[in-house]
Each structure stands twice: as structure tokens, then as C-alpha cells.
Write a structure and sequence with these properties.
heterodimer, A: 258 residues, alpha/beta, 10 helices, globular, B: 214 residues, mainly alpha
Amino acid sequence: MIKLASGREVILVGTALILVILLYMMIIQGEKRKKLYPIRRLPAMDAMEEAVGRAVEMQRPIHYVPGTGALNRLEATSTLAGLTLLSYVAGLAAKTGARIITTCQVADVYPLTIEIVRQAFQVEGQTDMFREEDCLFMPQEKSAAGLIQRERVAANFLIGAFWHESLVLIEAGARAGAMNIGGAAYTLGQIPFLVSCCDYCLVGEEVYAASAYITKDPSETSVIAGQDYIKLIGLGFIILGTLLSTMGLTVLYDLFGA
Amino acid sequence: MSSYEGEIRSIAIIITAIVGFFFLIEYFIVWTPVNKTASNITAYGTVLLGLAGIVGIGNLTRFHLKNIFRQGKNWIPSIILLISLWLPLVLGLLYTRNHFIFSYIYNSIYLPTSQAFFAILAFYIVSGAYRAFKARNLDAAVLLIAGILVFMSNSPATGILWPGFQPLGKWIQDVFTAAGLRGITIGIAIGSVVTSLRVLTGRERRHLAGRGVE
């Protein structure tokens, strides 16, 4: 006998599904009309090209960590966003002739990092420049701190899900004289460290918006616009809930409240 | 990209979509056959992750063996690394983790080293704070003042200097920090759902070494 999980969950899922369908329709509409929604400037994204260029000028490598999160846990989307940006940074490195070192702590993410970097070099026609030995598996991500200082990296990218090791890696980068570019979208506790210690930082949803920012593809920018509409709907619910609660009506709180 | 790579990528996208939507539906349905299948798939996933570990260990070993044979840069630390990697692994596989040598390596070498590394964080926080807390512009000055006030409110001794530090610090955290974090949390949650949807529908494929929407 098939049963739905529970009443409250059904309402939450129903709401989420409506929002997702709304978003999906926006994507399709965006593709049909080829409408390009404007995206505000993200200084961290603009700085990536500069950081890679700086590495080429200084003849020093770039270091990239796609987070220390796995693909089978809650932080998976953050890790995927980190890998998406790795594809972009590796492409820049291949185009400009910079050496890129990637370190990866998680076993299931590791083969992906190798393939992403290899593919980026292949696309730029620089297959011979790809060095698999620069894609390192480091089960203790903190130990990349030593590598960052030994190799005296010129740019240090930390984008994905991070825990306490973020500060160790950023400080190692700072000591090596690297330009630190961070991005955190999972562990809220690490965002203050990244914001205060990195030269540039992508905060929260900016990490997910980065892909659209790079490509300026209508289907991707319409996704960002869709997210904003969902936020507006959420904001509407917050204001409505506040007003209803002030009037002593707890309908919305009973539906969505903890 | 060759057609073979394209086909492999399509297979990966199809598997992701089927398994992803299956788990999405399973979360909200109470039906034994579906719930049991989901639990089995989770177990297979754990096994696959174990196999992915072999890829990592294999690459690490290959790289350092090559370095040792070539007597390249830092080839002596490469030997230490390989011994540290393989000795506990072999001992653990041969004698299980209860064996005294394995326990000794884990409890007396690995744990203290790991804890020492973790403890270094305290120094990094200080040097990070030193670099960050400079009033270079208005934003940095606000951060600096708020940081000092929260820092003072968390220190028991400052209550003697001025009793207002603690309520002020609590007010900053409860009002500004909480409001800011909630905004970020909502953004992250929506971003995560959207990214998941894009991955499940195969619209996001850069993580498969692709070029995004194709």
C-alpha cells in the first residue's frame, strides 16, 4: 500500500514543487526567447582571470581545491559548483599557459577533478600541457598547506564545501603571497573566515550563480532570474506570516514553522 | 570531444536522472518495495565510493613511485608517504584494526599528528584576524568594530570593565548576524535546489568534464 510520508511534509513538497515548476518554466521561456537577464557584477569572478594572469606573469602555479565535501552527502551541490568553476579556471589556465595544481580530499570527487582539468586542456588544444601528477589526492586536505607554500602558488582558489581547513589553506596562500579567491555555499560557519581572509569571495548563492555569470547563456541567466522570483515568493510568505502572526493567526506558522 | 566520450557522458546523465528522481520520490513515499530498493542502492553507493578510494590511492602511489625511481624533487618524503600510506593499510587488512601495531600507528602517530595540525588553526586564526581586521574602508571598519564588540562580549573579564558588552554583543549576533545568515541560508537553499534540478535534468554537466549546456 503506497502512502504519502506525512501531512506537513506533503505541503512542504507541494510548495517546493510548485516553485521548481515555476523555475523550470522560466528556464524554458528564457531558452525560447533567448532573453538575457542581467546579472550583477561579481568581483570574485572578474578577479579569477586576473589571478590566472598574475600566475603566468610570476611564472608560479595556481592551486585549486573544489571543497572537501563528498558527492553523496548534503554538501554535494556545493561540491558540484566547485567542480563547475574548476572547469572554468582550468580552461583559463590552459588558455594562458599557467600551471594548475588541484588537490582533492574526497575519493569520489578525485577522478572528476582529473577529468575536468584534462578536458579543459583538451578543449583549449593544450593536451600536452596537462600534467596528471598535478592533480593530487590528499586525504588530509590541510596538508595542502605545505604544498601551497612549497610551490609558492600565485593564486589560491578554494571553492566548494569547507570546514575548519579553509582557514589553514587561506593562510598558507597568504604566506606564499598568493591571491586568495574563496567561495563557500554550504558551511555557514566558514563564510566569515573566507570573507575576511580571502582577497575575493563568492558568498552563498553567488557560487551557484557563477556558471551563468561565465557563460551569459540565456538558459542559465533565466535560472538565476527564476531563483530571484522564488526568493520574492518566499519574501511574500515571510511578510504574510509576520502579519498573520501579529494578528494572532498562526496558519502559515503551523504549515511551515519548525 | 569524441562521440564515445559523449555517449559515456549521456549514460552518466541518464543514471543520475533515474537514481536522483527515484530518491526524490522515495523520500516522500512510504512503500516497502521502493524504500527497500533505495536502501539497497545506498549500500551499492557506499561500495562504489570505496572503489573510488582505490583510484585515489592508486594515483598517489603511482605518482610517488615515479618520483622515487626518478629521484625527483622531494623523493625522500615520497618514500615516507608511501610507507605511511601502505603500512597501516596492509596491517589493517592482514590483522584487522584491533592489532596492536595498527592501534599504535593510529592512536600514537596518526591521531596526535592530526590533532597537532588542528591545533595550528589557532595560530592561523590570529594571523588571519590580523590581516582581516584593518579599517581600510567603511565596510572593513564596521566589521572591525562589530568584531571587537562581539569578541569583548564573549570574554568573561570584559564584563568587569563594562557590563554593557555582553548585551551589546548578544544584540549584534541576534539581530544583524542572524538576519544576514538567514538571508544567506535562503539563497543557498534555493541555489542548491536549482543546481540539483539542473544536474538531475542533465542541464548542468560541467562536473562531468563537459561544457555546461550543450
